[in-house]
Request: fold
Amino acid sequence: MINTQKIPIKKLLFVFLGLFIVGLAINFVWYGTVTVTNSKTRAEVVVGSVIIKPGQSQRIRPGNYEVAIRGKRISKETLKLTVIPFSKKTISIDQKDLTDVQLAAKISGIPEDQIKLNGMRFFENETWMIATITTIDNPSDAGTVIAKYVSGEWVVVDDGTGFDISESLAIPASIKNYFSESRER
Reply:
């Protein structure tokens, strides 16, 4: 026989209210904490979609994350992180800033021991860079690299020796002005 007794509304309301309170509690307290320390550079740590600056802490939902340590003057590094409820994790950044030569080698693809940096200049709150480089083997063959910092990486926008900077709409006016002033000198 099938039991066809009705469940009292008070019991249903009590169960529903209990589940609602548990859901609220989980939503407000079911976190772990990630702290970033010991930075000798202007790096940042990205956990999921959350950016944490050195010296800061952030509440993070429990789960497995791929963490990116990135910055304009460091080599990007990734690691795995598991956050469990009520846990505290500390990420210590021990990378040092890249030198101008190391940074130019990184964006140009020329080995560091083969590069000669003739000049480097940053624009637009250090989100754009111009580097004029040659190689040790061929010092008379100078080239210019224009790069933009996007999502933790330097991306080469243009490079070469004879490009027409006035035709590129993607390059900011501050860089175009720099080239115009350089030609006038």
